[in-house]
Specification:
3 domains; three-stranded antiparallel β-sheet; 11 helices; 17% strand
Length: 221
């Protein structure tokens, strides 16, 4: 290990060998140190930047720590929510107040467990007050057609069935897509995802109502 001004220091080559971190990651963390909190270099030895060993190690341990943090996978397991539901709640954060992640590691977001749980309890209270006509019965994992989903939401099936490719903001992605003998597509949605849409549709904007018309060639049954 190298010393610099009486301190033990390490180069990027040392860090790669000790922590198994790629050079590109090390360069990115340092380049974006304003946001990552990466320690400033202690100086240079030869042509290489060096960092205080104890300072860098402390920063890295804090960065990698996920104690009391949860990922989407954790939230899926705890609450039985689909990944698409959690992604939609995050996408609509400006309207629903979804908390920001504490950190992002390898493109995976981590939230403070207590903060997320408190938000979700409050969110459920707020959204449940809006649920007046939604049918909350049935198996949450059951797959529904658009017509079935409309009945769950308490809206006319025609408002969904005739426009499967122009859905409102926040509408879930289908779990399965089936091609019918006629060549039309039938989309299947998870019942739990339809319930979540019902909870978020005020923030997303009310579902569009369409004028009745005769079914077209791309409509679903």
């Amino acid at each position: 290990m190298t010393t610099f001004e009486g301190r033990e220091v390490c180069t990027r080559r040392d860090l790669m060998a000790k922590y198994g971190v790629s050079l590109s990651s090390l360069e990115e963390w340092y380049r974006n140190r304003r946001w990552t909190g990466h320690p400033e270099a202690a100086g240079t030895v030869g042509r290489e930047l060096v960092w205080d060993v104890a300072e860098w190690d402390s920063w890295h341990r804090e960065r990698e720590s996920t104690e009391d943090l949860v990922t989407r996978a954790d939230l899926q397991e705890r609450h039985g929510l689909g990944r698409s539901t959690l992604e939609r709640l995050w996408a609509l954060r400006e309207g629903n107040g979804h908390p920001a992640p504490v950190k992002t590691l390898d493109r995976v977001m981590y939230w403070d467990s207590d903060q997320w749980e408190a938000w979700y309890v409050d969110y459920k209270k707020r959204t449940q007050r809006r649920e007046i006509q939604v049918d909350r019965g049935g198996d949450p994992d059951e797959l529904l057609t658009l017509a079935d989903a409309a009945r769950v939401l308490g809206v006319a099936p025609v408002s969904l069935v005739h426009h499967p490719t122009r859905m409102p903001r926040g509408w879930p992605e289908p779990v399965e897509v089936e091609e019918l003998p006629s060549g039309r597509l039938r989309r299947w949605y998870r019942r739990a995802d339809i319930w979540t849409y019902a909870e978020t549709r005020t923030a997303a904007g009310a579902h569009r109502e369409h004028r009745r018309r005769k079914p077209g060639p791309d409509d679903e049954a």
